[in-house]
């Protein structure tokens, strides 16, 4: 049976009372310290790690540590009986999905960005390959170790939730891990830097952590503490999509698991809890916020309609958004806003990889949701917790986007869910196991190296901000750009710096580096406008009209394909004004004022020329 199919069938184990397939049972008594450490790094390290020496050290360092954990797990499961994969139709679906994803990446306008991902997102093709590895690891762990997997999984989840919750509670009391980060209006973000990422992770892993509360040892109290701390943090993070997903899931669980008065009472409690969120004030702007989200989704549909076969490639919606956004949507979102995510898991995937890949992804989610509901209807706590975590994260993701470390955990849990479900799976023959294991190790190693590369650049950005002079601040940015030339953040920070420096020689040199940046980031309006910032500063320092003329040419090319970004018109109007073309400047500033109704700059500029 080592290389054969593993058929449907079940037996009940003691301990967690977890139902597993008859032939998916432990071949060893214990999981072992390597795999246990790996699971701990994926769940704990991927949630808790923060790099205080970085400019925004929340994500890359987490991916680095979680990647190491995933690599340890992969090394363990690739030995002995080897890896396990689904067979038949699921395997064919996987190959088809992978084929479309690779094609979308190859045909992207910026292949390196699509493969490795943007600095502050890291959800390129490499991340999705990592999710596939996590799925196979979860599947194979349960195949090889059976219910030995569940205890370390529960303990790691409990520790992760407790640490994250304690830091969130401290933040709620007034302490912040990184007070210089973007303001979220009092919303708790703990170690994630983003309240939505925090509450999404907690929604995923808290059900598994709470299983500890059913035990009869010291973990029982830790389980209760994890549950209570998580609920407080989810409330304090004030993420409406997570509140709704949690409420919907709780009601479904109550309807499935309970009868009579207990059902009615708990449903009432859930609804009261949801109603209590009204006192946070987060629902006051729900209509406007939902309208903005719908506008972004409409742009996403437009981008997909123009690129139905292979999409625009992962991490490339930023360009597609600026090319397809309408005047009305631009005004609604602020005119100068550059949106880099569709903020809907399914649509984001389809825009990145194409309509067919999107349809296949929907089928994958349907199957995962069906298996999760089966687990919820089962007769034991762990399967209930596993199903709740998987389906809750799936629901909230339809108003968010991929967060690499949380999604690694999610796909690993889906692998465990599939292995337990009775879906036919097969151990790979030894030659195939060697090849697939090698590819998996290569993928995860690349994931780790890429995350380390981002950490390196992130520290360079921090060095730039700490520098005492403009030239000292520019050097780290130039190093970062040379290290990752496809990464727009380096060039955006360069443009911001050059727009403030009085050193014309530095501006001259920086303009050359920014021109290289526009070539490395085709169609990226953020980089093109950063170049114009430097050119306009060159004019202000020298009065040389060639700087302003170059800015007009640069922005005119951008506006031809992206005609609804107010900042482009604002900057071009300034360049035209410097060149003495007041009428053309007036026209551009009027356009900018229309596209950016809340930005006073174009109106102030118009007032100046109206007074002349």
Would you kindly provide a written description of the structure presented here, covering whatever features stand out?
Mean pLDDT is 89; it is low at 1-29. 69% of the residues lie in helices and 2% in strands. The longest helix has 37 residues, at 430-466. It has helices at 33-48, 60-77, 89-106, 111-116, 125-145, 150-172, 195-210, 219-237, 240-257, 260-276, 286-306, 317-324, 327-333, 345-353, 355-376, 381-396, 404-421, 430-466, 470-483, 488-498, 504-520, 525-542, 545-561, 566-578, 582-595, 601-611, and strands spanning 5-6, 10-12, 19-21, 84-86, 425-427. Strand 2 and strand 3 form a beta hairpin. It has a three-stranded antiparallel beta sheet. It has a two-stranded antiparallel ribbon with strand order 2-3. Helix 15 (355-376) runs antiparallel to helix 16 (381-396), helix 20 (488-498) packs parallel to helix 22 (525-542) and helix 22 packs parallel to helix 24. It has 612 residues and is mainly α.
Summarize the structure.
By secondary structure, this protein is an all-alpha fold. It has 26 helices and five strands. It has a three-stranded antiparallel β-sheet.
């Amino acid at each position: 049976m080592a290389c054969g199919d593993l058929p449907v069938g079940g037996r009940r184990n003691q301990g967690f009372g977890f139902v597993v397939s008859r032939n998916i049972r432990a071949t060893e008594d214990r999981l072992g310290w390597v795999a246990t450490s790996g699971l701990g790094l994926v769940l704990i390290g991927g949630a808790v790690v923060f790099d205080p020496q970085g400019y925004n050290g929340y994500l890359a360092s987490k991916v680095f540590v979680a990647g190491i954990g995933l690599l340890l797990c992969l090394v363990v499961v690739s030995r002995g009986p080897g890896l396990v994969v689904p067979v038949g139709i699921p395997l064919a679906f996987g190959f088809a999905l992978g084929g479309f994803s690779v094609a979308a990446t190859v045909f992207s306008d910026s292949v390196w960005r699509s493969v490795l991902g943007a600095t502050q997102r890291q959800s390129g093709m490499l991340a999705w390959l990592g999710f596939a590895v996590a799925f196979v690891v979860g599947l194979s762990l349960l195949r090889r170790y059976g219910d030995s997997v569940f205890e370390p999984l529960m303990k790691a989840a409990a520790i992760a939730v407790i640490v994250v919750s304690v830091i969130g509670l401290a933040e709620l009391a007034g302490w912040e891990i990184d007070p210089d980060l973007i303001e979220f209006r009092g919303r708790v973000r703990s170690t994630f830097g983003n309240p939505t990422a925090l509450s999404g992770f907690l929604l995923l892993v808290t059900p598994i952590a709470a299983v500890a509360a059913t035990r009869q040892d010291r973990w029982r109290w830790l389980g209760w503490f994890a549950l209570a701390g998580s609920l407080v943090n989810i409330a304090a993070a004030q993420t409406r999509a997570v509140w709704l997903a949690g409420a919907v899931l709780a009601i479904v669980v109550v309807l499935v698991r309970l009868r009579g008065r207990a059902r009615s009472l708990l449903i009432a409690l859930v609804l009261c809890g949801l109603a209590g969120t009204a006192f946070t004030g987060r629902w006051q702007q729900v209509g406007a916020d939902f309208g903005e989200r719908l506008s972004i989704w409409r742009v996403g549909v437009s981008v997909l309609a123009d690129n139905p076969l292979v999409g625009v490639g992962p991490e490339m919606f930023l360009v597609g958004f600026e090319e397809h956004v309408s005047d009305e949507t631009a005004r609604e979102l602020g005119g100068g806003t550059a949106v880099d995510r569709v903020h809907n898991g399914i649509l984001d995937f389809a825009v990145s990889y194409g309509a067919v890949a999107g349809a296949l992804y929907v089928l994958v989610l349907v199957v995962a949701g069906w298996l999760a509901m089966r687990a919820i209807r089962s007769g034991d706590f762990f399967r209930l917790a596993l199903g709740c975590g998987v389906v809750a994260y799936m629901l909230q993701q339809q108003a968010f986007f991929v967060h690499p470390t949380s999604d690694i955990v999610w796909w690993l849990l889906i692998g465990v869910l599939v292995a337990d479900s009775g879906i036919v799976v097969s151990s790979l023959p030894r030659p195939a196991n060697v090849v697939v294991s090698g590819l998996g190790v290569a993928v995860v190693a690349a994931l780790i190296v890429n995350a380390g590369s981002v950490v390196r650049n992130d520290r360079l950005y921090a060095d730039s901000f700490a520098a005492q002079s403009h030239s000292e601040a520019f050097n780290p940015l130039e190093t970062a750009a040379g290290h990752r030339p496809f990464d727009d953040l380096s060039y955006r920070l360069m443009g911001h710096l050059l727009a403030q420096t009085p050193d014309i020689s530095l501006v001259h040199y920086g303009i050359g580096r920014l021109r290289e940046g526009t070539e490395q980031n085709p169609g990226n309006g953020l980089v093109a406008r950063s170049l114009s910032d430097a050119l306009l500063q060159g004019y202000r320092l020298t009065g040389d009209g060639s700087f302003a003329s170059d800015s007009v040419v640069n922005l005119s090319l951008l506006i031809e394909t992206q005609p609804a970004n107010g900042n482009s018109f604002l900057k071009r109007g300034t360049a035209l004004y410097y060149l003495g073309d007041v009428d053309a400047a007036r026209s551009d500033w009027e356009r900018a004022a229309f596209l950016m109704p809340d930005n006073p700059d174009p109106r102030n500029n118009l007032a100046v020329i109206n007074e002349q």
